[in-house]
Amino acid sequence: MTPHLEFARVCKTYRRGERPAVSEVNLVVKEGEILALLGESGSGKSTLLRLAAGLEAPDSGVITLSGGVLASDDAWIPPEARDIGLVFQDGALFPHLSVARNVSYALSGLSKKDRKSKIATLLELVGLAGKETRFPHELSGGEQQRLAIVRSLAAKPKVLLLDEPFGSLDPSLRRDLRAELRDLFKQVDSTVVVVTHDPEDTLAISDRVAIIREGQIECVGDTQSIYQNAPNKYSAHLFGPANGIAISANETRWVRPEYMKLRPVGPVGIPVEIVGTSMNCGSRYALARPSDSRFAVDNSDWLISLASDQHVHARDSYCIKIPTGRKG
Ligand code: ADP
Ligand code: MG
Hints:
Number of helices: 8
Largest sheet: 6 strands, mixed
Number of strands: 18
Bound molecules: adenosine-5'-diphosphate, magnesium ion
Helix content: 10-25%
Mean pLDDT: 91
């Protein structure tokens, strides 16, 4: 995949004397990928999207799209000429226009006949066929969000930027919509950046993830690889529970509870002792403490997923196989 949207050493400070919202950001979004921008509140996610869309200008650095400069010290393409779609959390539909006319608005370049068939195709894609004449307030939250996204896709932007698109939806709807949208984006070959603070959104929708912390990119990579083998403690914990294993004096691996397995005591692996069990959202975990404390990071016990038929007791001894190293 070729680079598409690119940030090079981009900086943005809103108010003089304040901490930069975005600092020296280098980031490449590749053509056809779904990239998640994952970070805590205030980490600079929306600022990056606003810079790409042209709602803010960088203090320094260069932003390019398909090789053409959007913003730099001596170039500026206004938002309306950027060919970039931006959808916020609440979609921002036109409340006085029907479903069909909300989409139609984005298709102003087409003939009436082409527009009609395009609207039908798009609404079919997001499961809104048959609801053309409804108004936004007559749709569910998930339908409104799908309409907002399909409306921005109708204009065929080179990149679609979504800012916390699932933020206002309840959890079950959120799960369904993530999967539907991923299918839709792949079907129409969109390049998408999704901003979120939610690890589950990230895992469900993205091909790659960029983790942002206090305005700086902490790491970028294939979403599954970063989830399974985060490069550092911050990135590991942003994605949920992770166990630090000090493999050597200068190498720590961050391993998810579901990738740690308790094995009978044997000649290979790290000996541990069970110190307790816990439950969370229907899953059971063992808490294990390495017999050699040098393996532990910050003296933390390890959380290890248990199978439904697996039972452990305090003071039981096991071994943990050292997980294989990072790929790529
Ligand atoms: P996120 O989307 O990750 O929550 P933002 O990009 O919105 O983060 O904000 C990053 C930082 O910039 C925060 O400290 C925030 O307070 C500040 N900020 C964002 N927008 C503005 C603004 N318009 N004026 C001043 N400060 C802002
Ligand atoms: Mg934000």
